[in-house]
Amino acid sequence: MAREIGRRTFLTAAGAAVTAAAVGTPAYATDDARDAATAHNLVDVQLLNITDLHGYLQAAPGGDAVIKGAGGRTYTVGGVGYLAAHLERLRSGRRNSIFFAPGDLFSGWEFDAESLADEPTIEALNQLGLDFATAGNHEFDKSPAFLSAHMEDGVPFPVVGEDDTFPDSTGRRFRGANFRYYSANMVWSRTGRTVLPPYNIEWVNAGNGRRLPIGFIHLTAVGTDTGSTSYQPALSSLDEIVTANRRAAELKARGVNAIVLSMHDGAVAGSDFTAGSNPSGPAYDLALKVSPDIDAIVTGHWHCRFNMMLPDPHGVPRPFVEAGCHGQLINEINLRLDPRSGKVVRALTTTTNHPNTRDITPDRELQQVADYWQGYAAKRARTPIGRQTASFTRARNTSGESTMGDLAADWALWAGQQPLGPMNDGNDHPNTPAELALIAAAPRVGQSVINKDLSYDAASGGTITFGQAWSAIGYGDPILTVTVSGQQLHDALEQQWSKAADGSLRYAPLAVSRNVRYTFDAGGAVGDRVDPADVLINRHRLDLSRHYRLAATSYTLLGADGFTAFTGFTAPVRHTRDFESFVAFVRARKVLSPAALNRVTARSLSASSASVGEIATAPHAFGRDGAASRAQAAQLARADNAERAFRIPC
To answer: What 3 state SS string does 363-419 have?
Structure first.
């Protein structure tokens, strides 16, 4: 079946189904889309998107700086200065151009942005002309209020110039984003109401004084509310397909006949960013099933790069794309709208992934923004915030205890006893203070929250700078205070030991806060090394039937580093993220002094069968002076042993 559009004959959507698997550079819905520009009586709309920038304004980090295209050709990519120059070229001469992003634009691991409350990222995005964004999981890394009140509206919290609201590259204080965030499936658990608006409607120029609507539905990755960095006890995430279908029907009922789904959930579809092959993942599963009223699906979250067409449930092709991460790519989708109905002529849709190459002259203003914040962050890193009397190191004694581990546990206890700030609205339980704290100093699985030693600097008299504290402890997880039983605490202490595949004894020591002492039997069997009577909390023996308030990182409490004993914890309260919290701890304590290593004692060391166990050493190769970025090292460290398998980014 065919009909006349403009000066050519094009297949209708039904007739286009046979080309549903078409991929290429660019990807075309049908062969007729190659000449879609000749359909002059249709309304041309350009959609541009980037994803998962994570505050990398200068360049993509490490191995992400080089990507592979068609024929194995490689491209060096990244940086908002170059991004601005490429965007200017792509937008040139286009009457209807919309620029958006499916999430994780800020929050992550780039010191220049993250240490300045990601305000540098917002300034750059404002200048890039971002129209709107989907909230990713990392947009919830602080709190819903921080996203809406501070990042969107510029409300300071809590201390101007210390915690946020820094002077930007023009000398003005932070005023928030010039764009809005959306999510249709992040809701308040108690009411079911969305945390953010579920969709937005953009109006495009159809000529002769007429405008046509395009609806954008937004989805955040399911499980964001229980993810380690974005853990928000008061929130829930709704099913993606059900939510998208519901909102698509709502938009159609409002007379919106062109609909785009922007989702912060992804897929993997080969390594060639210009095409797509063998797709898999939650976004792919959704793309095959979600409402055929949706005309394009733009994904993120998985840091993958693909550009392809997939059939909707009626067999009609629509774009299915992801533009990598860290400023690697700009995806461009071109839609042609019927000027009468506002419907997308799907047979004429094209999509292209453009590499953000560094072989052009960067935009001067955006490069100045990136350079300004890089200098500002370097200056802030040198700012003194406290003093230490000696070094804290990860060197462990025979019992597995270290001064750095003890310091981390003491910080966690302090953090779990702090009042909640006015923007910490992601909690729905009373803030009952922590009674003790545990830190996984060398977990069998994943990344330790302890990144490096806090070494004494004799030349400065032991000064601790902001940068030293920031990089010493932290991944981006909050400290949680939860209720657990005495039995769970005992089980966690027992889980420090396990048998490796070769039969050897492995030891993953937990650092305990200053008010805890315990003894383990070095000759005991795995699972029977700690007598509850030998565990003292505030000088009282551990009561297996009593409940305690425990402070630890969300990652540990969620069982991600191997300690499953805490499964079923109750009454969680989220506190500040680890690196920000540790900086606040150093400021509050003013002077740090290592204590004697006497919190953990090994018994029966002289017995012939005695063994403390081999301690696994988690990698710490990230940070400002590491070979890998914090994100890359974390992805590797938090993976299983299948080294070549694909890993979903954090």
So the answer is: CHHHHHHHHHHHHHHHHHHCCEEEEECCCECCCCCCCCCCHHHHHHHHHHHHHCCCC
What does the pLDDT look like over 374-387, one tens digit per residue?
Answer: 999 999 999 999 99
Q: Crossing angle of helices 80-91/119-128, nearest 10°?
A: 20
Which among 247, 249, 258 has a CA at the least distance from the CA of 212? 258
Q: pLDDT confidence of 646, banded at 50, 70, 90?
A: low
Distance of CA 59 to the CA centre of its chain: 18
Distance between CA atoms of residues 262 and 264, nearest Å: 7
Between helix 282-289 and helix 240-253 the angle, nearest 10°, is 40
What b-and-e string marks burial along 87-109, b requiring 16 or more CB atoms within 10 Å of the CB?
A: beebeeeeebbbbbbbbbbbbbb
What is the signed CA dihedral for 98, 104, 107, 108, rounded to 10 degrees? -130
| pLDDT above 70: residue 15 | no
Tallying the residues shown for the chain, one arrives at 650
Mean pLDDT, the chain, rounded, equals: 91
* pLDDT tens-digit map of 490-509: 999 999 999 999 999 999 99
CB atoms within 10 A of CB 71: 8
* Residue 113: CB atoms within 10 Å: 29
Question: Which residues are 334's β-sheet partners?
Answer: 46, 350
Tell me, yes or no, if the pTM score tops 0.70.
Answer: yes
237 neighbors 221 (Cβ within 8 angstroms): yes
